[in-house]
């Protein structure tokens, strides 16, 4: 039997085992997907090999160290410098970032857009900004503090603390911060969100499983919006297609969607 897992800390809440085991079951593949709590400071590639895994997903806070410890990375991962998927091929660890394209497939299924504002400058913002630029979208990044913006300004992105938001049009506004995850905070001051809302964009929150203040704001303003559950499904389906080659990503997305809806989730 092939073994797969997701590494993270915390990890108890992860939906990845549900999604991947549903796909293995539906396709009658003899494989099992587990979750593994890692202590910070542990070498993730050693743990991956010690567990005798064929593939893995990597979540907070290990995505950057997983990037540094991979043997083979593709061009987009090189740009993002964070990975969420490992696959063992001929003894080498190949690393991918499916958050990036997972976001793009989800957003594109909901709207046509040209100009996106990314709120936040962490790992998820890097993945999303990179894929948007590769897909020829205009991207602007705003963050509450300067330090993490350096990655973007050095990479040629337009990014600031929010001073220039009034000068640009946005048809998509994405919350990639953890504001609203465990608190009731907005990712930007409400006057800035109101000014953005006047341009009638789509509000996308990468957080899933709860209605964040950001999404409540969109609802009250009469704007179209969505949470990050469909993004989670797409990143999972894309990771699965790295684990098991020659799979149809749309079919895997549908299997995973059915599994999550059966658990009472709402899309
Ligand atoms: P990081 O810790 O790397 O980055 C967090 C960012 O949020 C930083 O830029 C930080 O700003 C900003 N931030 C944190 N708190 C606030 C606040 N109260 N107000 C404004 N800005 C804030 O996180 P990740 O990028 O790894 O993850 C972000 C979110 O994305 C998580 O909620 C995660 O669950 C979700 N996610 C969802 C996925 C999906 O499939 N739906 C996939 C991957 C992630 P500063 O630089 O000032 O600290």
Cα-atom radius of gyration: 18 Å
The helix fraction, in percent, is 25-40%
Distance between the termini: 32 Å
What topology, given as strand order, has the largest sheet? Answer: 2-1-3-5-6-4
Helix-strand sequence: EHEHEHEHEEHEHEHEEHEHEHH
Number of helices: 11
Number of E strands:
12
Provide an overview of this structure.
This protein has 11 helices and 12 strands. With 267 residues, it is α/β, with parallel strands linked by helices. The model has no long low-confidence stretch (mean pLDDT 96). The strands form 2 sheets. It has a 6-stranded mixed β-sheet with strand order 2-1-3-5-6-4, sandwiched between helices. Strands 9-8-7-10-11-12 form a 6-stranded parallel β-sheet, with helices on both faces. Helix 1 (16-26) crosses helix 10 and helix 1 (16-26) crosses helix 11. The structure holds NADPH dihydro-nicotinamide-adenine-dinucleotide phosphate. The site of NADPH dihydro-nicotinamide-adenine-dinucleotide phosphate (NDP) has 26 residues, from helix 6 and helix 10.
């Amino acid at each position: 039997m092939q073994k797969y897992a997701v590494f993270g800390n915390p990890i108890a809440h992860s939906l990845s085992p549900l999604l991947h085991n549903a796909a293995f079951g539906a396709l009658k593949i003899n494989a099992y997907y587990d979750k593994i709590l890692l202590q910070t400071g542990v070498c993730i590639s050693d743990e991956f090999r010690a567990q005798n895994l064929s593939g893995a997903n990597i979540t907070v806070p290990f995505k950057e160290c997983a990037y540094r410890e991979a043997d083979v990375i593709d061009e987009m991962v090189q740009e993002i410098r964070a990975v969420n998927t490992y696959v063992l091929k001929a003894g080498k660890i190949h690393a991918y970032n499916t958050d990036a394209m997972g976001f793009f497939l989800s957003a594109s299924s909901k709207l046509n857009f040209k100009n996106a504002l990314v709120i936040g400058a962490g790992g998820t913002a890097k993945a999303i900004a990179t894929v948007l630029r590769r897909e020829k979208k205009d991207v602007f990044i705003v963050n509450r503090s300067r330090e993490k913006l350096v990655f973007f300004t050095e990479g040629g992105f337009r990014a600031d603390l929010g001073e220039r938001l009034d000068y640009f049009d946005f048809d998509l506004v994405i919350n990639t911060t953890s504001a609203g995850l465990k608190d009731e905070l907005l990712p930007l001051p409400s006057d800035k969100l109101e000014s953005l809302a006047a341009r009638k964009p789509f509000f996308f929150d990468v957080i899933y499983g709860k209605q964040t203040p950001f999404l409540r704001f969109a609802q009250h303003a009469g704007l179209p919006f969505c949470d990050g559950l469909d993004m989670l499904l797409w990143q999972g389906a894309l990771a699965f297609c790295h684990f098991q080659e020659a799979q149809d990503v749309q079919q895997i997305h549908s299997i995973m969607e059915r599994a999550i809806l059966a658990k009472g989730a709402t899309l």
